[in-house]
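Researcher: Here's the sequence for the chain we discussed earlier.
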Amino acid sequence: MPDLLELVEFEADSPRKEVKELSQDDSELKYTVYDLIRTIKDPEKPNTLEELNVVYEEGVEVKERTSGNVSVVRVEFNPTVPHCSLATLIGLCIRIKLERCIPYRIKLDIYIKAGAHTTEHEINKQINDKERIAAAMENPNLKEMVENCIVEED
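Model: Thanks. This is the structure I predict for it:
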């Protein structure tokens, strides 16, 4: 895949083609993100998040890139019940898996579907706070739970 600067220099006389290339990359990114998160295991059940409809293709959106050309990815998920005690852990699993598996810098915004959880605002704040994420991953028990949820089966 060409670097954006190479693309801009190479296609400088064709702005339409440049936009088309960027949107194709964004579309590929959307499906890459979804493929990565759909296989995360639920912390309590023997199912994946996709099987439980916690994550879904329409919940992944690639937004306009930042001025520094960083892709902005918004992931929405829907806990199975409005009082799900593990919603924060699920959001943490989504974040950690994507941060580890996407080979370039992206800005992640991870949110619970509006109205789907009784404490969605507090959870959204936690799973989008870098310091809280770092602190959570320093907890050995929590880290082990995340690792068990995001490990890929052969």
